[in-house]
Structure formats: C-alpha cells, structure tokens
Amino acid sequence: MRHHFCVFLKSAVATVLLLAATALPWNVDQNGIGTTKAYGFAQSPILSKFVDPLPSIPIATPDPGQPYGPNCDYYVIGIQQYSMVMHSEMPLGTKLRGYVDLTTNPVNTPSFGGPLIVAQKGRPVRIKYINQLPQDNFFLPLDTTLMGGMLPQNAVSVHLHGGFTPWISDGTPFQWFTPSGQTGPSYSNVPDMPTPNPGEETVYYSNDQSARLLWYHDHFVAMTRVNPYVGLAAGYLITDSEEQALINNNTLPGYGVPLIIQDKSFVAADIATQDPTWAANPDWGQTVGSLWYPHIYEVNQDAATGAPVPSGRVDYGKWVYPPVQNVTEPLPTPSCVPEFFADTPVINGKAYPYQAVRPQVYRFRVLNGSNARNYNLQLYFEQPGDNGEPVLPATPVTPLVTAPPTILQIGNEGGFLPAYTELNTNPPAQWDGIHYNLWLAPAERADVLIDFSGLPDGTRLILYNDMAAPAPGGDPRNDYFTGDPNFSSTGPGALSMGGAPTTLIGKGPNTRTLMEFRVDSNAPDPAFNTSLATIKTRLADPNTGLPGIFARSQPGPIVPLNTAVNNRSATVGGLPNQIKTLNEDFDDYGRLIQKIGTAQYHLNNQGMYIQGFGYDEKVTETGMAGAKQVWTVVNNTGDVHPIHFHLFNVQVVARTDWAGNSLPVDPNEQGWKETVRMFPGTNTTVALKLDLPKTPFPVKDSVRPRNGAMPFDAVMNPLVNFGHEYVWHCHILEHEEHDMMRPLSVYQVRVLPGIFSLLGLLQTN
User: Fold this and answer.
1) What is the C-alpha to C-alpha distance for residues 616 and 61, in angstroms, rounded to an integer?
2) Same domain, residue pair 534 and 671
3) What is the pTM of this model?
4) Is residue 299 within 8 Å of residue 306, measured between CB atoms?
5) Does residue 38 register a pLDDT over 70?
6) Does residue 675 sit in the same domain as residue 735?
7) Is residue 106 part of a domain?
8) Would you say residue 377 lies in a domain?
9) What is the pLDDT of residue 752?
10) What is the pLDDT of residue 606?
C-alpha cells in the first residue's frame, strides 16, 4: 500500500492488516472503477525452484578488422524481438526484446543480459546500434498519458549506465530512434563515423574509467519502465591494469560471474480469472510464461465514495487530505502505476536457477536490474532434504550454529573500494531499525567474493533476500515467501486483499529465495586455489592491495573525508551546498507521482513546492566543465530512492536526519558511486565534479525544444541550449517516467577569435 508524502510505509503495512477483517474482492471496469475479480494483482504460475542451471552470458566479439585503428574496438549491436524459455515449466517461452552481437555474425540471436561488452580503460569503444524491432504493437500495456506516450512503440535509446560518455552517445530519453528512421530531438551520431542508415545510431564510449561493471539499457522517454523489463539490459565490463595484476597473481579468480537480477511476473493459465482485462487484449501475451505488467491504477479508496478498498494498492488523490482539486476522470486504461514489484526472481534470464561451484573462492559481479525492487542479499545453507528452503537465524542478529560463507565486497558501481567489506556476518548494518547485509537498490552493483572452500560435495546454499517492497516499510503483498499469508480471496485463511495465495514449500512465487549454489568438486574448474585468508591479506596491502589501487586509479575526494554536515550547512568543504528535494504528490488524474525538485521551487496542485522532468520552467542543474559542486538531497517521501547521476560519479559525503543527527555512510559506499540510496526523512550530501570526456572530435551543444519529445514541441516550446545534455533521476523505473527526472546541463568555455564566450549560460526560458 502506498500513502501520501511522509506517511511512512511502516504505518501503511499496519493499515493493510487492520483492513483485512472487512476485505471484499473488487475489480475495475473499462473506466478504471470497480467490479469483481479473484485478485487485484495477477500472479505468476507456481514454479519449482532450482531446476534450471544459471545461464552464462555471451561476450561480444569486436571487429577483427579494427576499422577505427588498433587502439579502438568496434561493434555492431542489433536490437531485436525474440523468445526464450525462462523456466523449464514454462516451455512455450517468453517474448522479450534484447541486444545481439552482429559484428562478425549477422545471424546471431539475442540472449538475456548480453552480449557482455568487455572494454579496457583508455581504449575507446565505438558501436553502431541497429534498431530491428517489428512495427507491431508492443506486447505489454502502455499508458499513453505519460510524457512521450504517443511516440512509436518500437523506438529505443541506448544508455551506457555509469559510463563517462560524451552527451551525444549517452542515450538520454530524447535520443530515441526507430527502425524507419524517426528520431528524437536529441538524437545524435558520432561526427567522425560514416552517417548511419535510417534506424541506426553510432556512439563513442571513452572508457576513461577504472575497472568496474557498467551496463547498457534502454532509456526511451516513453518506455523506460517496460523496455529494460522485457530484456533491453546488458552488461558492460571495463578492465584495467590494476585489476589484471590482481588476476595475474591469483588474488582474484578472473573477472567474475555476472549475476543480473530482475523480478518478473508471468501470465498464468488462469489469467482470464485473475485479470479479465488482460485476457481481452490480444496484443498482450496470452500464453503461459508471457510477461505480465500491471495496467490498472488500483486505488485504496472507492472512486465514487472514498470508502476504503482493502484490495487496493495505492492512494487516489481525490480522497486524500488535502484532496487534489479538479481531478480528471475517469482514470486512464491502461494506467501507469507508482512502481511495480513482480513475484518471480530471474537471474541471467532464468527463474530460480542453480549454479554448481567447486569448493573454492568465486567472484560474482551482481547487478540489480529490477524496475523497483531492492534486495538485501544474504547467503544461507539450505535445509536438509534439498527442499529449497534456507536455514535462517531466529532474528537478524542471532548467529547460526553453523555460519554460512561470508560475502566479501571489493567493489561497487564506481569500481574497487578503498578497503573490502566483510558481509554475511553478525551484527549486520542497520538503518532506522532495518537490518541489512548487502543492500542493492535498482541499478546498484556489487563486486563480491564468496568462499565455498571446505564445504563437502552436495552442500547447497541459497542466495536470499528479505528486503521489504517498497523499501523500507513495504506492503506485505509484495513479499512472497514459503508460508506467507493468503492474500487472495479463496482458500484457507483468505484475507481477500488483492494478493497471492500462500506460497508452497519448494515453489514460487517467492522473492526471498533467489538462486541456489551446489558445491560439486566435478563442476567446471576455474583453476583458482588461493585461500580467502590469503586473498584478504593481499587485498589489505597498502601498496598492492585495495588501498593502493584505489589511490592510483580513482580520483581523490572532492571534499575532505569526514567533513561535518548538518541541516544548516551553507557550504560543505568550501563549496556552496545546493539543496535538492525528492517529493511525492498526485497528478491531474489523482495518481501518485514522484518528482525531483530544486531550490528554485514552484507550486503544484497540492500547494507543494516541486519540479519534475515534464514541467520544468528552466534547467536548474547546470555548471561549467570542471566545476566542483555539493548537493544535499532531501527525501520528503516514504520510499528509498536510488538516485542515478549520468556523466559523473559522486562522493557520498554524509547523511543526516532532519534533526541534524549524523547517520553512518556504509563502508561499501566509501568509494565512488553513481547510484545512491536516498533514505526517507534523510538528507544525503554528495560531492561531484562536472568533468567532460575527451573525444577525438568536437562535440556541439544540444539545442532543442524544452520537453521536446514530439516534433511539434518546437512550436509549443522555445528552443533551449542544454549544453552537454545529461539527466539525473530516480532509478525506480516507474518513478523516473512519472516524473522523477531532471535535465543536467554542462557548459564549456569556448575560445572564439579574440574573445571568450560562455556558451549555454544564456538560455531561453
């Protein structure tokens, strides 16, 4: 259940349980308002856990002809629609969109999470992307009332997430292109490459970054919430000499095994009962195993009377206080939802996979690629009998009799940390009473080591998650685990709250038991035998270990470490403290909407000061290339928001509560970050530098109509010089499209004959 502004979700959970005694099943008609159905939210088929092996992710092969010289890799990457079996009990397969390496083989087929591009620091990558999607209607519901909603449904914009990339290749929301050659107002190509054909785009990635895991995914203005969900997300690995030295001396076991975690919901055989409106739409997948996506704004209040609706999931602005005035009725169909928490974990394209491992140390590169779900990753032994259930401690701080292997984190999305962090130990970290181990919000990554040595063959362990959804307080209907309450309207103990029946032992839906590790001495041999104790000693070495590597390969801090910050800090480290805000309100239809604000405020229809991507009066995040800035982001909502910064990484300086008390910055945030968790009721202070990548060609400023998603916007909106155009936004995908995103413009001093010109600072607003 979602509530308004700072009514935190802990109280929302209590409200859900109190309403259960009077619950009645409900549904919505074609206008988005009320009749009956079995659940308020469709559930996936019951699937057996840990029956399919973890898929490997293919690696892209660069053009051996090196058309751009021996110090540059070139690829041709297609974007196609395809189908794959995501669980052996859904043999009809799942329709997806994916990337495919066409560089040396034009008949390759897409694969989930791939192709993984392996790059080297300082060695640029050039890519020609080819949009080969069909003209058919998209196979999931789309709300056309959102910004860009009337644009073609086969458009794409490829964003290298975490890349230090010129803006023309960043893949921002307005850089979209279709197979037929339609393009967005910010669509650009690399000026020293051949002009691509219609339906193609060329990009340049500088790779002027230390070793780290990036990823590339779709960022099209109208479909970012659904295109990565249907498969347009893949890994991009940068390596460097420091990492290679650790591999060469057997401190690290290679580059690691990618684990790309997403949650999905699949169409079940009884979809006509669960979701009659879905079954009535032939464009949406109807076979068992097709992807399902929510398309009804299921409200907590009866639209006509305001009476409580126990199976609802989100507040309706007409019936909150103060109420939204002049609500546009009825609700759209299909309608966007505030966020989506699916019920089935999928890793590398398989639901509940298993991985055979030798009794030795393994390295895993973990990416949370989910739309909205946070993960608190832990490792536990499986119960005897291989029933797919973990042996859990009685409480988060109760040690187990036999401790499972520790998780050693050595890096995050910004690369290697200055020191490793030992996880899966007691007591865990906590925030506001919530205990967590390895917390990964959407788009966060972790570079971890797990030691399986000393475990006998046949040992089974479970990668486990117990983070609430939405984080931090949660709605219990989004938490699927064995023996959970029966939130459906049928069966023993039915609570009729628009949720799923009780999860069975060894089965899904289950969002807690993600995958299984099976210790097997006959598993493929990675040829690595260094002990974890030796690894830890080597990693701690001040010169050849993580401290020295971090000092050599990462920028120094922007503001001094341990800089004190409070709610009244006008400056931080000698830099002006710019205040940004995260806000929640209701749109004109009475639906929850999330926005990023700034210190330059304006009022919305609830009398709250907010700004968002679609309604900005001017670009407020600006700066000259090379400038250092400090931002304090104030979270006025009840959610944890993973805020992602294009172009730059940030130094997490401090967290403070609204009383000014200092809150700890986690050890695994002590390095550089480009996706930062912003906690409710908390100020998060970050420092950044607006460097621009060096390119072998000139990069012009972006000049386009403000909010220019459609061609006719040039008439409706004045032209704005966005300089080097980037964005910053929440990486809960439903949030960023409605409307938690802001433009970010970086300008350069350009020398003209006889004068200096500060281009871009004089904007048309």
Assistant:
1) 42
2) no
3) 0.93
4) no
5) no
6) yes
7) no
8) yes
9) 47
10) 64
